[in-house]
């Protein structure tokens, strides 16, 4: 071991690694309700891959202070980007739109002929 880590250094490191809800909102682009919906197993938007908060104060069933682990939030964001790129939903929507436009144009040409 290189040297002893002081308590102040340890607290400083942990503080940097934990995020307040507002920071999670800023990083993910989700609002408070959307974050808690992803955590709620009863909610239609529940996302089991969304990072769980760490309880720092109060009881686990009634926390007074929670924080999210920064690396877990960053990993979830990376997963969302990967999932978005893999499914390429934008390309599929664009193709469907182009098909609808072509079909409408064909119908209009048939009616005008």
Note the gap between the termini: 85 Å
Mind summarizing the main beta sheet? 3 strands, antiparallel
Strand order of the largest sheet: 1-3-2
- Count the helices. How many? 5
Radius of gyration: 23 Å
Structural class: alpha+beta
Q: What is the count of distinct domains?
A: 1
Spell out the helices and strands N to C.
HEHHEEHH
Poorly predicted spans: none
How helix-rich are the residues, as a percent range? Answer: 55-70%
User: What is the overall pLDDT average?
Assistant: 83
- Report strand %: 5-15%
- Shape by Cα distribution: elongated
| Topology, number of strands | 3
Task: Explain this structure.
The chain has 113 residues and is of the alpha+beta class. The chain has one domain (7-112). Helices cover 61% and strands 14% of the residues. The chain contains 5 helices and 3 strands, in the order H-E-H-H-E-E-H-H. It has helices at residues 7-17, 21-28, 32-39, 70-87, 89-112, and strands spanning 18-19, 54-59, 62-69. A hairpin with a 2-residue loop joins strand 2 (54-59) and strand 3 (62-69). The longest helix is centred in the C-terminal third of the chain and has 24 residues, at 89-112.
Quick rundown:
The chain has 113 residues and is of the alpha+beta class. The chain is built from 5 helices and 3 strands; from the N terminus they run αβααββαα.
Mind sketching the topology for me?
Blueprint: H1 7-17, E1 18-19, H2 21-28, H3 32-39, E2 54-59, E3 62-69, H4 70-87, H5 89-112
Antiparallel strand pairs: 1-3, 2-3
Keywords:
113 residues, alpha+beta, three-stranded antiparallel sheet, 5 helices, 14% strand
């Amino acid at each position: 071991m290189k040297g002893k880590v002081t308590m102040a250094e340890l607290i400083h490191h942990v503080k940097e690694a934990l995020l307040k809800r507002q920071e999670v909102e800023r990083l993910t682009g989700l609002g408070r309700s959307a974050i808690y919906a992803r955590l709620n197993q009863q909610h239609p938007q529940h996302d089991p891959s969304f990072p769980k908060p760490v309880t720092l104060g109060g009881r686990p069933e009634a926390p007074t202070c929670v924080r999210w682990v920064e690396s877990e939030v960053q990993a979830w964001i990376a997963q969302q980007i990967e999932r978005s790129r893999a499914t390429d939903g934008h390309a599929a929507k664009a193709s469907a739109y182009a098909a609808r436009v072509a079909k409408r144009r064909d119908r209009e040409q048939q009616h005008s002929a």
